[in-house]
Write a structure and sequence with these properties.
Butyryl-CoA Dehydrogenase, subunit A, domain 2; homodimer; 19 helices; alpha+beta; 596 residues; Butyryl-Coa Dehydrogenase, subunit A, domain 1; 55% helix; two-stranded antiparallel ribbon
Chain lengths: 596, 596
């Protein structure tokens, strides 16, 4: 195999097309104070520089780090060869601060560009990207909840990436159910009022802590969920604390990494078992406000997990396509016009492979539009001059976040697995890189709230709980369908999208009836709703691509390719969700208990 | 977690139910000369002994071998700790010869029991089982194609398992396309007639050779596809040769293992790059008869790959069920009658998990009926006193083999992945065993003919090429549906099965039209046909289970559990194939070329 088919090639042209033509982001930036000076050319330069970092620095480390893994000793965790150096280059390039506020040392660029950067980093090296993954969340939490003294000490270090952060939530008995957490925090001065910044001693065991220890940065800022004395049971009794690995006076804090997990993938990312032994820390925000503080970072964190799905889908699909366009096996029943005849044809011409490759490409491009739109809405939520638009964007982000997290990580992992199949036996071999995408992408369906939890969030809190988000989404969907209907060349596209809108409407109606009749019923079909809504959003994304391809300024060859792929998706890839919506409408069907 | 939820527990009760109640195999044995002395009690004893071997010897080696992997040096491959000892125990127990002819040292037991044994071995340790995997094929090839002298020298060693065998097909440029093979065989005596047993020198490179070198046996019998001088191009020019690792006079042959692959899974199984440098060997069968000799072992080999899918599906599902019945997280919206209340409920009560677990259980039990029936038909093909029944059985086996291979390995791998999700983050951790099932099961969809190749075989050669097999299958399906209709309690079951039969009939009719109109059309929907036929066979299997549960002699609790699971499958798990059949009926839809 040639180098081109095993290496990562950032899809810059596709990314620019989504940002500039589909989402028309440069026009939006001109209305957003913080981004008014940003233009399309500058955005392209930034992404090209990010692409160079991903290709030159991160991608070469990816396969070797998977084989090497992380090294644990009671004193320290050592990450794979090259990881610390790559981190220093990332920091020196100012990348961690891309979307942070210039007031605290950030570059103030849109979340949209940060999303595109994240896609490339994950495509090139998901394991390495895990270390950076919690910076966004830590930044938000510190900005909104840390006392001024803590902000002064920690925020510049986190924004710059000189120190990394972790999120210490999970305990052995408490995964999806944070109400069962047992870690404790005791005030240093029981007489002092328990306010943000108060000093505490934190004790407890945490598991599955990404980057709980590492050798990329000198210090690590642990954000820890724990209970103050006499806190309420359940999630209301949780508070959030900042517990650094190294204390301001240079001493090591009583924070220990007792081991790292042997995992299916992400072997370059240290997943740590942590033990806090009366470790010194400080309260962030109000007592009992731990979960609320966590939720602050949730939308952005879940969007980034969705981008991990996209990153794997893109990289694995591109590898499979490159392989299939080179590898010759058997004669194809038909050849493209003018194609040469030989003893065997490239497998990309065989119908079974064409199906897989076209589906991968259509899903990748649709997923990218959806994920980037969500990032654009985060910018709108933060930056739009009109408060109503900001509030509307927030509602849409709330509704879309579980879909982006769950549906895109499902697409990413399953797509990587389909891509593996294109390589046949070679797909099973480490050197070809695809099997690592399959293993690495699997965890994104599990962490940051399992995809089953996302489906419950979508159904119970978003579709049934907050009608405003759905109204806004339906408006956007209808607007897109109307735009298609207004163009004689896009009548089929508009018709297919309208069918999807109708399925969504009928599905939500069925859910409302279900909730009245039977509290469990919406939960029995939550997974179907997620898949159905995901397909509605793919249909919308393909329609937006089809619309954008017809705009002036799009090169004819690019426009033709975009139309072909989007219309393939609209025609061939939506039927799989019809029976899911049917199940939603049949919510009354009982579900037996599992026999022991 | 308790030991019970991480260890393998052979599903003996389920296996006995299929063999005795669903397939009524003991009644069939009484009509088959070779098995007339076998009764249900003896069969149970054999399977219990096999289960003990799987649990006590193989299962404990599985996880450690995955972490250790195989060790390569230019001189030899070393398998993981315990593998050679386990092989010796297997040989001492007489297991390799279970289904071989007593005339050559075998035990003459039914393929059906060998299939049940295989399921357990794979559930316990797929990697180890790979070394034994080619004995069946080598046995068949040697019996039918080896010269008497070669038979005398090699057959007893292979039947006993004292020597293991390999199948050397794939070359770097020739995977699915064996016509591209380049390995060469040159007669030692160019003047002698080129007949079975003739001495040759074999040269060439082979890849992906399971057990190409290993330290389980003193000698290895390589079966090698290569071309004699002036052989025809393509597959017609391929001949089969026996090339031993050690020659009869004790010298090492010029057979070299140049390396082993780093793979996604099956790390305890050495996947070897082989080099033959004028290695000494002998022709098996006729010149140019290589592919025909290979086909002899194909049905049995592909059935065994299908059993690998079943083995993983069973083991991963059982682990997930055990975990879900122990692990408590969050309150479930409803509890089973009389269940205790606590701060959190077992996750097996949560609707999202119930769905997954019930689906896994239903698919496992359906898949077992299908795979075991195929093994029973192999026995019928070999042993039935009536020649017509033997021929009919062969036709059915031919039709079912690609379905068992592809559909069951898809179910196995995807099911293992679903089971992983039940464990949430723990599913991603090696210690819990499920992620290894996901990795190990993946390759079964790729080797022994990729599942895409199986789908083409099913559509082109079996459904469109040999109408007799389909006629016989439809008769069996109709017979089962009629039996359901004859029982007032099974009317729904009969109705659902009839719907599936009608989908199959309409689908095949569409394929026949497609072939007339457009040579490529059946290939565009082959994957859909495979999925559709697989679901028809699951419906049939669940109907057979539902019928069997009502038979006298089935314990009431077992009957109730069997009915619940089978009916859940019939009611909830067939809708996913409706759109696949719809695509088959819409075969005329064009499929674009993949954009570069």
């Amino acid at each position: 195999m040639s180098q081109a088919s095993t290496g990562y090639v950032p899809p810059l042209e596709d990314m620019h097309f989504v940002i500039e033509q589909v989402l028309r982001a440069p026009q939006a930036w001109s209305h957003q104070g913080a981004h008014a000076d940003l233009d399309a050319a500058t955005a392209r330069e930034i992404l090209e520089a990010g692409a160079a970092f991903a290709v030159e620095v991160l991608a070469p480390l990816n396969g070797p780090a998977d084989l090497e893994g992380c090294h644990w000793s009671p004193e320290a965790v050592r990450t794979p060869a090259g990881f610390p150096q790559a981190w220093r280059q990332f920091v020196d390039g100012g990348w961690p601060a891309l979307a942070c506020d210039p007031a605290v040392g950030g570059q103030g660029l849109p979340q949209l560009l940060d999303a595109a950067l994240s896609e490339m980093l994950v495509s090139a090296n998901h394991a390495w990207t895990m270390y950076a993954g919690l910076l966004h969340g830590a930044y938000e939490v510190l900005r909104h909840h840390a006392s001024p003294a803590l902000q002064q000490r920690y925020l510049p270090e986190v924004v710059s990436g000189r120190w990394l952060a972790t999120m210490n939530l999970t305990e052995p008995q408490a995964g999806s159910d944070l109400g069962l957490l047992r870690s404790r925090a005791v005030p240093v001065d029981p007489a002092a009022p328990m306010a943000s910044g108060a000093a505490v001693r934190v004790s407890g065991q945490k598991i599955f802590i990404s980057g709980g220890d590492q050798d990329l940065t000198d210090n690590i800022v642990h954000l820890v969920l724990a209970r103050l004395p006499e806190a309420a049971p359940g999630t209301r009794g949780l508070s959030l604390f900042l517990v650094p690995k190294c204390l301001p006076d240079g001493r090591r804090n009583a924070v220990h990494c007792d081991g790292i997990e042997k995992k299916m993938g992400l072997k370059g990312s240290a997943t740590c078992q942590m033990r806090f032994e009366q470790a010194e820390g400080w309260l962030l925000g109000e007592p009992g406000g731990g979960l609320a503080a966590m939720f602050l970072m949730m939308n952005s964190a879940r969007l980034h997990v969705g981008l991990q799905g996209l990153g794997h889908l893109e990289a694995a699909s591109a590898r499979a396509r490159a392989y299939a366009l080179e590898r010759t096996q058997l004669r194809a029943p038909c050849r493209p016009p003018g194609a040469p005849e030989g003893p065997a044809d490239v497998i990309a011409w065989h119908p079974a492979m064409r199906r897989v490759l076209l589906a991968l490409q259509a899903r990748t491009e649709g997923a990218r539009v959806l994920a980037y739109w969500c990032a654009q809405l985060l910018d709108e939520q933060a930056q739009h001059p009109d408060a109503t638009r900001r509030a509307d964007a927030a509602e849409l982000v709330g509704l879309l976040t579980p879909v982006v997290k769950a549906f895109l990580t499902d697409l990413g992992h399953r797509g990587a697995d389909d891509a593996l199949g294109v390589l046949g036996g070679y797909g099973y071999i480490h050197d070809y890189g695809i099997e690592q995408h399959v293993r690495d992408s699997r965890v994104a369906r599990l962490y940051e709230g399992t995809n089953e939890i996302q489906a419950i969030d979508l159904v119970m809190r978003k579709l049934l709980g907050r009608p405003r988000g759905l109204t806004l989404l339906l408006e956007e969907l209808e607007r897109t369908a109307a735009a298609c209907r207004a163009d004689a060349a896009l009548l089929d596209t508009g018709r297919v999208l309208q069918q999807q809108i109708d399925l969504l409407g009928a599905g939500v109606q069925a859910l409302r009836e279900a909730r009245q009749a039977d509290a469990e019923a919406p939960l029995r079909v939550a997974d179907d709703v997620m898949d159905g809504v995901g397909h509605v959003m793919l249909a919308w994304a393909w329609a937006r691509i089809d619309l954008a391809a017809g705009q002036p300024g799009v090169a004819p060859a690019l426009a033709e390719r975009k139309r072909l792929v989007a219309r393939h998706g609209l025609e061939h890839l939506l039927d799989a969700s019809a029976h899911r919506w049917q199940r939603v409408r049949q919510w009354a069907r009982p579900l037996p208990w599992v026999p022991a």
